[in-house]
Specification:
The chain has 281 residues and is an alpha/beta fold. The protein has 12 helices and 9 strands. Helix 6 (93-105) runs parallel beside helix 7. The protein is elongated, with a radius of gyration of 20 Å.
Length: 281
């Protein structure tokens, strides 16, 4: 059997035409060899790769543009190793930024040490709910999704991380309305891609369509704006991940449905308008 370093070098050369990153190969090696962090792969690079046959099988899956996170059923999000499969989106850095922005901005409107009720709508892997519960353990954290399969993934991650999160199945705000639950905060990363041509092939072919493509005639944004009064007990803070080309669309929706509100569009680290924050008095 080759060493870990030899196997990765050989795979890197073989996968160069496919644009596969060395990072992905280290993630495979980390998972296959039972290491916890990528640094462990570098430290043990001269050791024999015990699961070389499995590594070779996974390389063939990479050639078909299958995301490495689905191959190893793991994605990293703000310090957590979360279980993922094709029923949920792979958590990305933009969503980490969304969580960071919420933690920065929420103190402008609430004392975050208080008991606040926060809903992560369309939770998928549960990443947002877990990260916010980490930051604000006093909050009652709720998570919902229309997909039972996605909720099973979220429940698995809530259990593995020890996050205390109440789970609801349903579309938009309906499960919270049905439960007569009042919310202080809504956070969501809804479907927002308008054109399939804008997405990478690996995204189009492997990630769940219901979590990707925006139907402007039936959007989660509009559903939340339309129904928010049914869950609003006092003030309400809402945080959305968005696509930069949705600004005019969202402004029109806010004018149609919202009253007495403050809103702010915020750019991500790449300078793209990626977040919308709304405060309803």
């Amino acid at each position: 059997m080759p060493s870990i370093n030899e196997a990765i070098k050989q795979a890197t050369a073989e996968l160069k035409p496919y644009g596969i990153l060395a990072l992905d190969l280290r993630l495979l090696a980390m998972h296959d060899e039972g290491y916890k962090e990528q640094m462990d792969v570098l430290i043990n690079k001269d050791k024999e790769m015990h699961h070389y046959a499995l590594f070779l099988e996974q390389i063939e899956r990479l050639k078909k543009e299958e995301p490495v996170e689905y191959i190893i059923n793991q994605a990293d999000f703000l310090g957590h190793h979360l279980y993922v499969d094709p029923s949920v989106l792979i958590p990305r850095s933009e969503t980490e930024e969304l969580v960071a922005k919420v933690t920065e901005k929420i103190g402008d409107y609430y004392d975050p040490r208080n008991y606040l009720v926060c809903a992560d709508i369309g939770t998928g892997s549960g990443a947002i709910a877990i990260a916010l519960k980490d930051a604000f353990p006093n909050w009652l954290m709720c998570a919902s999704d229309l997909s039972p399969a996605a909720l099973n993934v979220a429940k698995k991650n809530f259990a593995s991380t020890g996050a205390q999160v109440d789970v609801y199945e349903g579309d938009g705000l309906k499960p919270f309305i049905d439960a007569r639950l009042n919310l202080d905060i809504i956070v969501t990363n809804p479907p927002y891609i308008l054109s399939k041509a804008d997405a990478q092939l690996s995204v189009r072919n492997y990630e769940p369509a219901t979590a990707l493509w925006l139907d402007k005639e039936n959007s989660l944004y509009e559903a939340i704006f339309r129904d928010y009064k049914a869950v609003k007990r006092g003030t309400l803070y809402m945080a959305f991940e968005i696509s930069p080309d949705l600004v005019d669309y969202l402004i029109a929706l806010m004018k149609r449905y919202l009253s007495d509100c403050e809103y702010e569009f915020v750019a991500d680290l790449n300078g793209l308008t990626r977040f919308l924050f709304i405060y309803l008095k």
